Structure to design on (680 residues):
């Protein structure tokens, strides 16, 4: 009996399920299933692309738009929070129903693709910001870690602790490979700035004044002074909690399964 | 017949959509008419705004200078400029590069705070980056209150005749000269391609298989929750382990590589700077507002004052400035109008007294009237939640010295 099904199945339904199982040996039925699978992939693709673009724009937009917003404190907290709450319900559904641990990688990869399209057409071509100022961050590796933790452990709980933790903790390190040059120091009129700060100052944003950025605000630095590792640990903990919480949301959504009881 | 009607409707909808697109005009302003009249009258008084030169080529420098007074009549319902403010420039995105900005000589890369009733001189230096015709405004972004916009000045930016891409070079503290337009993009592209390849490979591994969604769904339903993991094969486990290890290795490798290549980095910089207001000569004119009325039909503001001249020199009232509109007294030939300056009513101010002699106390009526009241939507002041006005009165002594003083008070509308 399926884990999401609690009621006793009727005799008719049992026969129907037996037929479904036998249909897997039927080449004609399998051909039909593959067509349906294609439709499911297209629907999921469109849903995830649109959903993650809107969701991430609304919850973590500026942190991903501008290089001078990606600080050591808030960006590594906001970005995984935003992504995990979107990924977790999909992960639960795909795992419980079809044992396909791909939600983390699919969401982060599609987010990357759609972000590049948005930055190129909207920010570079249309509004003339240089790509060096508006390129997106990457979270694909974190999505892979999240999914692989589930593959290896085959446990949503363990994958929450390992995958969710790594997803939160490694936001800064995974992006550091190409973000480090933007934190090189420069001087302007006697003031110390990073290259990212200088770009934020030079490339005018009329409605995004300097004070809107949330740079290193909080008291984490008082705990030992090492901002980046401390934030990584805290973000990892938040990642575990958020991922678990929204897996639970996913399980609740999946309990509304009357419409999927019968597929033929 | 029905199909024909449906087609006609679709055609009509399509035509209407196209008309809307074609008829849409250019968005050329920055909302200088959109804000509440009281906000524009009682927040910041911008004056002496000068943008030069007005015709440049890509790569040329444009300077924007001027002064501002923070109003003592700042609306209570609006977050105050005394908390956090940033001097910005209103241009269409990065059509210009901001090279430098300062207030009273203090660099303005950061935010600051302005006490009320003080005078500030600002200067912003920008470099033309994209050819076009732009309405350039000084702007103050006030935290929790939004943007306060000065009047705009049109600047024409022509191509510079070169096909070479725009270059924005800067030298880091490490001595490396970089072009910010394309800086470090090679690394960005490379690393994104690596991760995209990893992501696509992982997805392909899982999605390209004989049994996918529906067959797996059927099998799991039959196996039940306890045995559903039987669908996960040893191959899946090995692939998951390899992807997991490889991903961690790439993250660690990339991090160490960047640490080695860029050993000196700093966090993003932030903070506020302090700007001291400048001292300006006071003209020793004592002004008390007796009444102010706004004639809706006549589009004019009539203000009655009791003024006492404590100056040693006679005084002539030359100008009234409110909401960035200059109402000038044609009887007093003072006050420069800059090239390209907008929102100036050159004969917009009528003053009942020609000269106020030293020591004299007089009743003065100022009438500021012009179509600009209508054009800049100042007639909406009767809809404001706090019916008050404020503005600057400019006056001159016998030596041609200019002084200014803020006035403000309650205002009553006259409907007929």
């Amino acid at each position: 009996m399926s884990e999401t099904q609690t009621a006793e199945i009727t005799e008719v339904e049992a026969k129907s399920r037996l037929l479904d199982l036998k249909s897997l040996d039927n080449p004609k039925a399998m051909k039909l299933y593959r067509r349906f699978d294609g439709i499911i992939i297209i629907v999921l693709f469109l849903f995830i692309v649109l959903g993650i673009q809107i969701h991430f724009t609304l919850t973590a937009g500026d942190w991903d738009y501008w290089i001078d917003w990606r600080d050591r404190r808030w960006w590594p907290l906001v970005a995984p929070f935003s992504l995990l709450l979107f990924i977790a319900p999909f992960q639960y559904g795909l795992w419980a129903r079809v044992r396909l641990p791909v939600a983390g990688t699919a969401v982060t990869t599609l987010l990357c693709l759609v972000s590049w399209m948005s930055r190129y057409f909207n920010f570079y071509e249309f509004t003339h910001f240089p790509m060096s100022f508006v390129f997106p961050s990457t979270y694909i590796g974190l999505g892979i870690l999240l999914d692989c933790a589930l593959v290896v452990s085959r446990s949503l709980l363990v994958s929450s602790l390992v995958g969710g933790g790594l997803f939160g903790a490694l936001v800064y390190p995974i992006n550091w490979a190409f973000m480090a040059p933007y934190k090189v120091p420069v001087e302007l009129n006697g003031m110390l700035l990073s290259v990212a700060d200088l770009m934020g100052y030079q490339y005018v944003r009329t409605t995004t004044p300097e004070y809107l950025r949330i740079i290193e605000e909080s008291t984490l630095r008082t705990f030992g002074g090492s901002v980046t590792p401390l934030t990584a640990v805290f973000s990892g903990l938040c990642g575990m909690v958020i991922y678990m919480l929204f897996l639970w949301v996913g399980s609740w959504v999946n309990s509304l399964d009357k419409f999927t009881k019968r597929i033929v | 017949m029905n199909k024909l009607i449906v087609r006609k409707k679709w055609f009509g909808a399509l035509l209407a959509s196209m008309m809307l697109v074609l008829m849409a005009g250019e968005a050329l302003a920055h909302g200088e008419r959109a804000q509440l009249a009281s906000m524009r009258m009682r927040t910041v008084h911008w004056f002496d705004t000068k943008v030069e030169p007005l015709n440049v080529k890509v790569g040329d420098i444009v300077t924007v200078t001027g002064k501002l007074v923070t109003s003592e009549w700042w609306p209570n319902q609006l977050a105050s400029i005394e908390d956090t403010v940033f001097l910005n420039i209103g241009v269409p995105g990065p059509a210009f590069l901001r090279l430098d900005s300062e207030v009273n000589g203090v660099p303005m890369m950061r935010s600051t705070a302005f006490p009320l009733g003080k005078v500030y001189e600002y200067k912003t230096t920008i470099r033309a980056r994209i050819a076009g015709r732009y309405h350039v405004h000084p702007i103050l972004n006030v935290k929790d209150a939004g943007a306060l916009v000065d009047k705009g000045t049109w600047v024409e930016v022509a191509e510079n005749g070169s096909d070479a891409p725009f270059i924005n070079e800067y030298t880091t503290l490490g001595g490396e000269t970089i072009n910010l337009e394309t800086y470090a993009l090679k690394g960005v592209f490379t690393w994104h391609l690596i991760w995209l390849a990893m992501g696509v490979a992982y997805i392909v591994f899982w999605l390209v298989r004989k049994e996918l969604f529906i067959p797996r769904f059927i099998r799991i339903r039959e196996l039940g929750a306890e045995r559903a993991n039987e669908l996960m094969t040893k191959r899946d486990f090995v692939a998951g382990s390899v992807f997991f290890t490889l991903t961690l290795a790439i993250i660690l490798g990339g991090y160490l590589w960047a640490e080695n290549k860029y050993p000196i980095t700093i966090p993003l910089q932030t903070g506020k700077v302090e700007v001291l207001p400048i001292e300006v000569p006071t003209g020793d004119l004592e002004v008390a507002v007796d009444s102010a009325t706004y004639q809706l039909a006549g589009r004019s503001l009539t203000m009655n004052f009791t003024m006492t001249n404590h100056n040693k020199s006679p005084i002539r009232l030359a100008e009234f400035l409110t909401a960035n509109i200059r109402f000038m007294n044609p009887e007093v030939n003072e006050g420069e109008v800059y090239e390209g300056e907008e929102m100036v009513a050159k004969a917009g101010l009528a003053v009942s007294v020609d000269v106020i002699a030293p020591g004299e106390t007089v009743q003065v009526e100022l009438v500021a009237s012009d179509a600009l009241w209508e054009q800049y939507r100042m007639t909406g002041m009767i809809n404001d939640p706090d019916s008050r006005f404020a503005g600057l009165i400019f006056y001159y002594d016998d030596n041609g010295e200019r002084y200014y003083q803020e006035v403000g008070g309650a205002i009553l509308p006259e409907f007929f």
Notes: Chain B has three domains: 37-162, 185-261, 285-414. The longest strand of chain B covers residues 132-142.
